[in-house]
Amino acid sequence: MHRSAYTLEDQERMSRAENYFAWQSRLVTRELGRRVVEVGCGLGNFTGMLLDREAVIAVDSEPDCIQRLKQRYPDRSNLHAFACDAGSPAFTDLARFHPDSCVCLNALEHIQDDRQALHGMASILGPGGVVVLLVPAFPALYGPIDRNLGHYRRYSRASIARLAGSTGLRIRKAHYMNALGFFGWWVNSHILKRAAQSERQIEIFDRYLVPLFSRLEGLTHPPFGQSLFVVLEKP
Fold first, then answer.
1. pLDDT the model gives residue 235
2. What is the mean pLDDT of the chain?
3. Spatial separation of the C-alpha atoms in residues 217 and 209, rounded to whole Å
4. How do the domains of the chain map onto residue ranges?
5. Residue 230 CB-half CA count within 13 A
6. Could you say which residues of the chain have pLDDT below 70?
7. pLDDT of residue 12
8. C-alpha angle with apex 176: 172 to 179, nearest 5 degrees?
9. What local confidence, expressed as pLDDT, does residue 196 receive?
10. CB 176 within 8 A of CB 220
11. Domain 8-233, what fold?
12. How many helices (H) and strands (E) does the chain have?
């Protein structure tokens, strides 16, 4: 079951955070193979960064997102898009594409049964296949913004390790990212009690802060962060 995820307006607003998406792309794309299943593709903000691959199978629970994505990337013979939930029989059928990797960015937290969803991702991969996740970090940060966005939870490295173990996956890599965002999220959620991030906040963060802090975190991973980056492997 999915709780209401990012609205189309939310996704369009976040798509303007170009530096953040470039940072995210640098982390994620190098971990993926040539035949990728993208779980929770939304409007396709990240899908476009994968279209140099042999095959991209984009999946979202919202049919309107899939329709918009097809309109956004017409006539792409390597792009296949479907409206279904991870872990459903329709999702399991995607094994016919012989994917070597799955990517799920800021979507797992919207799924009530995240174990079933992750098990579904693992089930369509062969041995050595990878699942790449980006999820919100630190349960203590959970607040009005999370509830408004439809987040069931935030994660820690320990909770991801338990989740991965329960689905037969092993951790290849797990580290926090966006340490500055940790403090911003805390202030918004617990001091200012905001239910949403403002466009101005996103613009300032993306234009002035992401270029510097992405370079710093490229040198050493912080001990905390707004998000948790995870690469899981199927034995």
1. 97
2. 93
3. 12
4. 8-233
5. 29
6. 1-16
7. 53
8. 160
9. 86
10. no
11. Rossmann fold (3.40.50)
12. 10, 7
